[in-house]
Amino acid sequence: MKKYTVTIIGGGVAGLSCALTLASSKGFPKLPQDFSFLVIDDGKSDLKKARLYNVPLAENGIDGEELLNKLHSQIKKFRNTSFVEDTVKSISGTKGEFNITTSGEKQILSDYVVLATGMHKFEIAGDDFIIEDHDNVPKPGKIKLKAGVNNKIKAGVYAAGLAAGVPTMFACAAGSGVETACGVLSDIQENKTVIHDTAKSRLN
Given pLDDT bands bounded at 50, 70 and 90, which one contains residue 198? Predict the structure, then answer.
């Protein structure tokens, strides 16, 4: 059974921004040679229903699903990220040995897990998830996951985007996904790590 370095649950803007940052991070000394990433998505991102007028560098009125497709295309150029359409039922184990079970009866092994599951509900079974009221959005009844610095929930598990408590804005969710990716990479590297642009291509 293939084991992934990081599995991201949720394929909205936060999950994909996290995946893009991770996928572009080759070249650091403590990253495994065969490092790989998986995005598990149920296809229900709110962004698919949106038309956006305030996303930096995107044309006014761009369709949300088109933006998601553009992110997909960027990520796929790095060839180290896979995508599965499914719903996660449970997460068990500890950092380095997580076992993820999906509704489609897939069993996935992963060193790290990122929860970019949105603010509507959280139904993944696990012992260490604390659900709180999302106090950063105008609509009542929304939720977030209790997390600390770099959106860390516990060793090896992180939140991202609306599930981490940010406002319902594209740029906020994208930034949260990137912040979470940097947190994961910092943990792997055992040192503060960010991914800057470079003149050398990382598309390998």
Answer: low
pTM confidence score: 0.93
Instruction: Return mean pLDDT, the chain.
Output: 91
Query: How does 48-87 read in b/e, with b if 16+ C-beta sit within 10 Å?
Result: eebebeebeeeeeebebeebbeebbeebeebebbbbeebe
Considering the segment(s) 3-189 as one domain, its CATH architecture is 3-Layer(bba) Sandwich (3.50)
Domain boundaries, the chain: 3-189
SS3 sequence, the chain? CCEEEEEEECCCHHHHHHHHHHHCCCCCCCCCCCCCEEEEECCCCHHHHCEECCCCCCCCCEEHHHHHHHHHHHHHCCCCEEEEECCEEEEECCCCCEEEEECCCCEEEEEEEEECCCCCCCCCECCCCCEEECCCCCCCCCEEECCCHHHEEECCEEECHHHHCCCCCHHHHHHHHHHHHHHHHHHHHCCCCCCCCCCCCCCC
In angstroms, rounded to a whole number, what is the distance separating the alpha carbons of residues 119 and 10? Answer: 11
